[in-house]
Specification:
about 450 residues; alpha/beta; Rossmann fold; 6-stranded parallel sheet; 18 helices
Length: about 450
Amino acid sequence: MKISVVGSGYVGLVTGTCFADTGVNTTCVDIDEKKIENLKKGIIPIYEPGLDQMVLSNFEKERLHFSTSIKDSLDQTDAVFIAVGTPPGEDGSADLSHVLAVAREIGKHINHYTVIITKSTVPIGTAQKVKAAIQDEIEKRGLKIEFDVASNPEFLKEGSAIDDFLKPDRIVVGVESERAEKIMSRLYKPFVLNGHPILFMDIPSAEMTKYTANAMLATKISFMNDIANLCEIVGADVNSVRKGIGSDSRIGQKFLYSGCGYGGSCFPKDVKAIIKTAQQNNYHLKILEAVEEVNNTQKTILNKKIIEHFHDLRDKTFAVWGLSFKPHTDDMREAPSLSIINKLLDMGAKVKAYDPVAMKEAQKHLGNKIEYGKDQYDVLIDADALILVTEWPEFRLPNLKVIEKLLTNKVIFDGRNIYDQDELKESGFTYYSIGKHVVKPE
């Protein structure tokens, strides 16, 4: 089979590379000429464990190609995936301008039956807009060319995207014809040989499934953060509560960890988009509106604890461990660290930060407003407190004696509840976490 993937960002590059790895002749297309030239040299624009080696291997074996031309990529292609960005507009709705621009370009050059698949996360009804845009361009050419549209939402987790694609929990595909279903079945055959289900459904249901999945996960996070805040007030330990409810098979253990809010490219954007879709249809998703409100508040929770402890932050210096919105990625979109750091700066504090992979990306957002350390202990020197924001593995078992020696005050603010409060208490630290009472040395 031969496919094209338009958009070589996170979703597009992972999708194209993983299909190529199963033997599909794949072309990744992007209008960014520098990005395409870099990809041909093995330079990857994103951080995703294992992706660079997979790209290089499939490029060298000539199963994976890179191009800036949609027209050239359509030749003898069975399917085209649209995987360009859908950033949120000012009103929270998804911006479909890039998706529809690709659709129009396909309509200008398509010359045989092809399945066009929306892989980007798009609002319900987008596939029909894509279909109309393609059909309009074909009619302008005075031609009659058959094609189908389909919806195939991605369910990739940054940091484990390759495994998620190669070993999916399920594959969701929305189609309108048996012909399109047959092509999609053939394309995904290598991924269902081990029993992973492929779920065919109508297109609106497939589009809705993606938003509903992310909205449900965001809901679990905000729910536990809300419970964590109540735990602090009544004297309960949210970690114990999490274990108590997570052992219930009806609830499960995943996405029950309290912290300083969710971020990233999916949850914030998708929650906003589905709320907007409901409003456009004269309906209010009250639970999700509350989910968003709780998350926005949760991003301020560490700042409140810091102010409670220090009162006046002027001339104070804080060491921040972790900048990306989650471990194993350099993604800074909607990262809680940005909210936390900007608030500290607004109150006159200085910030020194370290992240294993995201500091270059962080500089695009924070510039030279903060200091960037060479390692996790470098930023502790003469800092008044440590703030843990992203739970990278290398932060999980720090040397407490080194921290004590470098910090001006033995104070830790743990935004992800990864440290042992009893150990910190014995070592003489004041320890703030989420959903538990503050621990102070006796």
